[in-house]
Write a structure and sequence with these properties.
The complex is a heterodimer of chains A (385) and B (572).
Chain A: H1 8-14, H2 19-33, H3 37-49, E1 55-59, H4 65-70, H5 76-83, E2 88-91, H6 99-112, E3 118-122, E4 125-126, E5 135-136, E6 139-140, H7 141-150, E7 154-158, H8 159-164, E8 177-178, E9 187-190, H9 197-210, H10 223-226, H11 230-233, H12 237-242, H13 252-255, H14 323-362, H15 371-374
Parallel strand pairs in A: 1-2, 1-3, 3-7, 7-9
Antiparallel strand pairs in A: 4-8, 5-6
Helix pairs in contact in A: 2-3, 3-9
Chain B: E1 3-7, E2 17-24, E3 27-35, H1 41-45, H2 53-58, H3 67-80, H4 86-112, H5 127-137, H6 145-161, H7 181-201, H8 203-209, H9 236-267, E4 281-283, E5 286-288, E6 298-300, E7 303-305, E8 324-327, E9 342-343, E10 375-378, H10 387-396, H11 400-413, H12 423-453, E11 473-482, E12 485-494, E13 497-504, H13 506-511, H14 522-527, H15 539-547, H16 552-555
Antiparallel strand pairs in B: 1-2, 2-3, 4-7, 5-6, 8-9, 8-10, 11-12, 12-13
The chains are: A alpha/beta (385), B alpha+beta (572).
C-alpha cells in the first residue's frame, strides 16, 4: 500500500507540535538560509503544504561522523521531523531492521516512490579492484549507489568523504576512494568533516520546502553555506587586521584571543559557515576554542599540510601577503576594503536569493524530472574571497 | 542439518559488518564475523608531520570521535618525551568522560534498545500504568501520565501513516520480546528524550575542541587558553556551562538511563546465561589522576583477567613483543612467511589479498579468508575488550568504586557475579561504568576549576613543539580505553616525519575472524548457543552483537596495502 506522503506541517501537528512551534522552526530555518521576511513566509507555506519525500541514506567508506553530526542538529523539530521515525527508510546507523529486511526497505522505497525519494550518501566509493574494499549485503558500494540513484529525486553527498574523498583519498589513495560527484551527475556536495548539523538540515529543509536543490556554486556546494571564507566571518578577524597574532599556543596572545593565522589557521582559504552558524547549537567553533582551522571542508585538505605551517609559508600561496607585513599596512587600508567587500557580497547574495525563490515558487511540480532539472549552477567562479 | 543465515548489513552499529551463522535446532552452532569495508589510512600517514597525525587518526571513526585523536597525541608525546600540564590532562579527561556519556547512553537507546523494546507493543500500553512504573523507578520530572500518553499518540500516528521510516520492516511482535506494553512505552518515550539530550553533553567537546564530531586535539596539551575575564577564551562562563552540562548528564544517567536499564534487564535475566563468548578480558586502563605515565593512578586499572578468574589480575605490558600478536589466517591479507604466522604489530606485514567471492555474492567462503579485520591475540589468547572487560579488571583489581558499583547492580538484579559473563552483563557493564564516569567527570571538573582559581592556567607544553628539538629518530606508543575497549597507537618518527604508524583497535579484538589455530574471537564465540526463534528474523543475533557496540570503521582502519614491512618499535 502506497500512501500519499504527509506534509511537514501535518506531521508536526500529529506529533503534538503547536502552530507556534512550527512557525518558530520555519523562522529558524529562514534565518539559517539567509532568507528575507517575504521569502520566509513562502518557505513556511511550502513546508506546510508540500509532501515529504522518503530518504535513503547510504554509508560507504566513511566514519559515520556525518550521521553523528546530523542527529545533533539543535532544533528539536529538525531532529524530530527531518531525521528520524518517519521518512528515513534506510540508515545503517539508526534503522531497527537489519540484513534482508533492511535491504528490502531500499527496494520498496525505490519501487513505491520513484522520483520522490532523496538519496543521501555518506562516504566515498572505492573504485580499485572491482570495488571489493566496500560491500554491503554482498554487493559493491558502486552497485548499490547506482541502483538507488536511478530514480532518486535528488542526490546529496554528505561530508568530505562523499564530496571530495577526505582522508582515504589522500595520497596515495590506496583503495581508489572516489567522491560521489565523479560517479553520478548533479550531486549536491555538502563538505566538511563532518558538515555542521544545521547546514545538513538546512539543505534538506530547502529541498523539502522548494522541491529542488538550493543554489550551488561551481563545486556543487550550496551557496547559502559555502560562499564565505571562515576568515571573513571570523570574530577574531579584527586582530588579523590589527596585526595581533598568537605566536605560540597558550601564549599571551592566545589568552587574549588573538588571530591564529600564524599557527596555521586555514580560515583564509576555507569556505564554510563555522564562523557564522558555529557548532553544536552555536556553542563555539575551532577558532573560538583556540584551535586553528584545518580546512576540513576543502577538497584535498589532507594533502595541504602540515596543518600548523602558516599559509604564506607555503610556496605559491599568494592570496595575501605575510601576516607580519599585513599587520602594518592593513591596519590602514584593509578596513575600507573589507567594508566594500561586505557590501558587494550582500548585494550579490540578495540578488541570488531573490532569483532562487522566484524560481522555486514557479516550480509547482515536485515529482517531475531528474535531479539535473532542479539544479542551478549559476556562477562558475567562486566569488566569496 | 544446520541452516546458514546471513545478516548483512548489521545495522545500528558503526560501519560495515556481516554475520554468517549456522542454526540448528533453534540455536546457533557456529558463526563468522566479517568486516566488509577498508580504507587504508596507515600508509596515508607515512611522511606526514607527527603533530598532524591526530587529525588523520580521528577520522578512523566519527562515532568514537576523540578517542583516536587522544591516542594519537599521547603516542607522539610518548615518542618525544612530552609531559602535558595537569590542566591539559584534566581537559582531556573531561572530553573523554563527555564522550563516554554521550556514546554509552546513545548506544543503549538508539543502537541497542530496539533489540529489547517492541515499539508497536507500546500502542497497547496504559499510560497511567507506565507513569506509575516510571515513578517507582525514579524521580525524573517527565514521568507523568500525560507525557506518556502524548508519546503513545505520536507512535500511533506514525504507525497510522503507513510510513514507519527507521522502524519499518523490523521485528515487532517477535516472541523474543518480553517487556510488557507499559515498559515498552517507557523505552520509546526515553528513546525520544535521549535523542534530544545527547546533543547537549557533547558541547563539552565544542568548548574545549571547537566542534563535535571530531574536536581538535593538540600535541603537548590543550588549545583552551585560559583567560578568566576574557570573553574570547576559556572563561568563567564557559566553565560554568561545562559544570551545568555535567550536572544535567548525571541527572539523565541516574534518573533515566540506569532505571531503564535495570527495568529492562529484570525482564531479560535469561540473557545473563547467553552470549558469554571468550573467557578472557583485557583493559589498558585510562583516566589518569597522576599523569598518563603512572597507570597506578588510573580510574580504570590496567590488566587482564583470564579464564573468568576474578581473584587475579595479570599484568599487561603492551610494549613486550611477546604479548600482542596479529594473524591473517582468515583475513584478506597475505604474510610473506605464510599465513599461519602470528606477528607482533611492530613486525607486522600488510598486503591486501582479497580472495573472497566476486561481488555480488550470497555467501562468504568461511573456510578460507573472510574479513578485512586482522586477528589480534594477547599471549595467544582471544581477549574481549570494552566496558565488561574494564569493569572485570577493575573488580578483580579491587578498585573500590568499581567494586561497589558492580556489587550494587548485581544485588539489585539478584543475580550472581557469573551473570556478568553474558550479553546482559555486557549491556549492564556499560551502564554501570557510565554512572561512575559521570561522577568522576564532576571531580575532574572541580580539579580544573580549582587549579585555575589558584592561578595555574598552563594548558600547553611547547618545549618540544619545534621539530628542530626532536631526535633524528623516536618511537612511541599511546594507550587509551575507547568506549568499545582497549585502543593503542604506535609511531616511529624519523627526521621529523612519520616513518611508521600502527593502530590496534577495540573492534579488531572483538570482531575479528578466527586465528590460525581456529580459535574464535569474541563475536563469533558469543553467538554460539544463542537462541534463534525465527531464522528469517535475526533479533537475537543483533542483541548479542550490539552488546559489544561494534565499530567497524575503526577496526579496519588502516592497513598498508603495499606489504611494506613495519619496523620494530621499542617503547620509550
Amino acid at each position: 500500500m502506497v500512501k500519499e506522503p504527509l506534509s511537514l506541517w501535518q506531521i508536526a501537528r500529529s506529533r503534538g507540535y503547536s502552530r507556534r512551534d512550527f512557525l518558530k522552526f520555519c523562522g529558524y530555518l529562514s534565518a539559517a538560509l539567509g532568507l528575507e521576511a517575504g521569502q520566509a513566509r513562502a518557505l513556511t507555506k511550502a513546508l506546510e503544504t508540500k509532501p515529504r519525500p522518503p530518504v535513503l541514506w547510504f554509508h560507504f567508506q566513511e566514519c559515520t561522523c556525518c550521521s553523528e553530526s546530523f542527529i545533533k542538529s539543535s532544533h528539536p523539530l529538525l531532529a524530530d521531523i527531518l531525521l528520524d521515525r518517519i521518512s528515513l527508510d534506510y540508515s545503517l546507523t539508526l534503522q531497527a531492521a537489519a540484513g534482508e529486511q533492511a535491504e528490502a526497505a531500499v527496494t520498496e522505497t525505490i519501487k513505491n516512490y520513484p522520483g520522490q525519494y532523496i538519496l543521501m550518501a555518506e562516504g566515498s566509493v572505492p573504485m580499485k579492484d572491482d570495488g571489493v574494499y566496500c560491500t554491503i549485503a554482498g554487493r559493491t558500494a558502486l552497485d548499490g549507489l547506482r541502483e538507488a540513484a536511478e530514480k532518486a529525486m535528488a542526490v546529496i553527498a554528505w561530508g568530505s568523504c562523499a564530496s571530495n574523498g577526505c582522508v582515504q583519498a589522500a595520497s596515495p589513495n590506496p583503495t581508489g576512494a572516489t567522491p560521489i560527484h565523479k560517479l553520478l551527475p548533479n550531486v549536491v556536495n555538502v563538505p566538511g568533516c563532518p558538515p555542521i548539523a544545521e547546514v545538513m538540515t538546512g539543505v534538506v529543509a530547502h529541498l523539502l520546502a522548494f522541491g529542488r536543490l538550493p543554489q550551488l556554486d561551481s563545486q556543487g556546494r550550496p551557496k547559502a553555506f559555502y560562499s564565505t571564507r571562515i576568515h571573513d566571518s571570523c570574530y577574531r578577524r579584527p586582530y588579523y587586521d590589527a596585526g595581533l597574532f598568537v605566536e605560540s599556543f597558550d601564549d599571551d596572545g592566545a589568552k587574549k584571543g588573538y588571530c591564529l593565522y600564524k599557527m596555521g589557521c586555514r580560515g583564509p582559504q576555507t569556505y564554510n559557515s563555522c564562523g557564522i552558524i558555529r557548532w553544536n547549537g552555536s556553542t563555539s567553533y575551532p577558532i573560538q576554542s583556540g584551535a586553528p582551522c584545518i580546512g576540513c571542508s576543502e577538497a584535498g585538505y589532507y594533502d595541504a599540510g602540515p596543518f600548523y605551517r602558516s599559509l604564506p609559508a607555503f610556496p605559491g600561496f599568494g592570496v595575501e601577503s605575510t601576516a607580519d607585513r599585513l599587520g602594518i599596512y592593513l591596519a590602514a587600508a584593509a578596513g575600507g576594503g573589507v567594508a566594500l567587500h561586505a557590501v558587494a557580497t550582500n548585494i550579490r547574495k540578495r540578488r541570488l536569493i531573490k532569483r532562487e525563490l522566484e524560481g522555486s515558487l514557479k516550480d509547482k511540480d515536485l515529482k517531475a524530472g531528474k535531479p539535473k532539472d532542479k539544479t542551478e549552477k549559476t556562477e562558475k567562479t567562486e566569488g566569496g574571497a | 542439518m544446520a541452516q546458514r543465515i546471513v545478516v548483512d548489513p548489521v545495522t545500528r552499529i558503526e560501519g560495515h559488518l556481516r554475520i554468517e551463522a549456522d542454526v540448528d535446532g533453534g540455536r546457533i552452532t557456529d558463526a563468522w564475523s566479517s568486516g566488509t569495508m577498508v580504507r587504508g589510512l596507515e600508509i596515508i600517514l607515512r611522511g606526514r608531520d607527527p603533530r598532524d597525525a591526530w587529525a588523520f587518526c580521528e577520522r578512523a571513526c566519527g562515532v568514537c570521535t576523540t578517542v583516536h585523536a587522544l591516542a594519537s597525541v599521547r603516542t607522539v608525546e610518548n615518542a618525544l618525551g612530552i609531559v602535558v600540564p595537569p590542566n591539559a590532562e584534566l581537559v582531556r579527561n573531561l572530553m573523554f568522560c563527555a564522550h563516554y556519556l554521550q556514546d554509552h547512553v546513545v548506544h543503549f537507546y538508539v543502537l541497542h534498545a530496539l533489540d529489547w523494546v517492541d515499539v508497536v507493543s507500546a500502542l497497547s500500553a496504559d499510560p497511567a500504568q507506565t507513569a506509575a512504573i516510571a515513578r517507582s523507578l525514579s524521580s525524573w520530572p517527565k514521568n507523568s501520565e500525560g507525557y506518556f500518553k502524548t508519546v503513545q499518540e505520536k507512535v500511533r500516528s506514525l504507525v497510522a501513516s503507513g510510513q514507519l521510516g527507521i522502524f519499518a520492516n523490523a521485528y515487532w511482535g517477535h516472541p523474543a520480546y518480553k517487556l510488557p506494553p507499559e515498559v515498552n512505552l517507557l523505552g520509546v518515550a526515553h528513546y525520544l528524550d535521549i535523542l534530544e539530550w545527547q546533543k547537549e553533553i557533547i558541547k563539552v567537546h565544542t568548548i574545549f575542541g571547537g566542534k563535535n564530531p571530531h574536536p581538535h586535539y593538540l600535541v603537548g596539551g590543550a588549545y583552551s587558553a585560559v583567560g578568566p575575564e576574557n570573553a574570547m577564551t576559556l572563561n568563567a562562563e564557559r566553565l560554568a556551562l561545562v559544570g551545568k552540562l555535567i550536572d544535567d548528564a548525571i541527572q539523565i544517567v541516574d534518573q533515566v538511563y540506569i532505571p531503564d536499564l535495570l527495568a529492562v534487564a529484570s525482564y531479560y535475566k535469561d540473557w545473563a546465561a547467553i552470549g558469554g563468548g571468550v573467557s578472557n578480558y583485557l583493559s589498558y586502563g585510562d583516566l589518569p589522576t597522576r599523569g598518563i605515565g603512572d597507570p597506578s593512578g588510573f580510574k580504570f586499572p590496567r590488566g587482564a583477567v583470564l579464564d573468568r578468574d576474578l581473584s587475579r589480575v595479570h599484568d599487561v605490558d603492551a610494549a613486550d613483543p611477546g604479548q600482542i600478536t596479529e594473524s591473517v589466517a582468515h583475513s584478506w591479507y597475505a604474510y610473506k612467511g605464510g599465513d599461519a604466522a602470528s606477528l607482533h604489530p611492530w613486525e607486522g606485514e600488510t598486503d591486501f589479498s582479497y580472495t573472497g567471492p566476486k561481488p555480488p555474492y550470497k555467501n562468504l567462503e568461511v573456510e578460507g579468508k573472510y574479513s578485512w579485520l586482522k586477528t589480534p591475540r594477547w599471549k595467544g589468547r582471544a581477549m574481549e575488550v570494552g566496558p565488561l572487560a574494564r569493569l572485570l579488571v577493575g573488580y578483580a583489581a579491587g578498585q573500590p568504586e568499581i567494586k561497589e558499583a558492580v556489587d550494587g547492580a548485581l544485588a539489585h538484579l539478584a543475580v550472581p557475579a557469573t551473570a556478568l559473563f553474558s550479553t546482559l552483563g555486557r549491556t549492564a557493564a556499560r551502564g554501570i561504568e557510565t554512572q561512575l564516569i559521570a561522577r568522576w567527570m564532576k571531580g575532574f571538573y572541580s580539579d580544573l576549576v580549582n587549579n585555575i582559581k589558584n592561578g595555574d592556567t598552563r594548558m600547553f607544553n611547547g618545549e618540544k613543539w619545534d621539530p628542530g628539538t626532536w631526535p633524528a629518530e623516536a618511537k612511541g606508543a599511546g594507550f587509551t580505553e575507547a568506549p568499545r575497549g582497549a585502543l593503542s597507537h604506535w609511531i616511529v618518527i624519523k627526521d621529523g616525519k612519520i616513518a611508521n604508524y600502527q593502530l590496534v583497535v577495540p573492534t579488531t579484538w572483538n570482531g575479528s575472524p578466527r586465528d590460525a589455530s581456529g580459535q574464535r574471537s569474541p563475536y563469533e564465540a558469543a553467538l554460539i548457543g544463542t537462541p534463534v526463534a525465527r531464522a528469517d528474523q535475526p533479533l537475537e543475533i543483533l542483541r548479542t552483537i550490539h552488546s559489544f557496540d561494534p565499530c567497524i570503521a575503526c577496526a579496519v582502519h588502516l592497513y598498508d596495502p603495499h606489504g611494506r614491512r613495519l619496523h620494530q618499535v621499542r617503547v620509550v
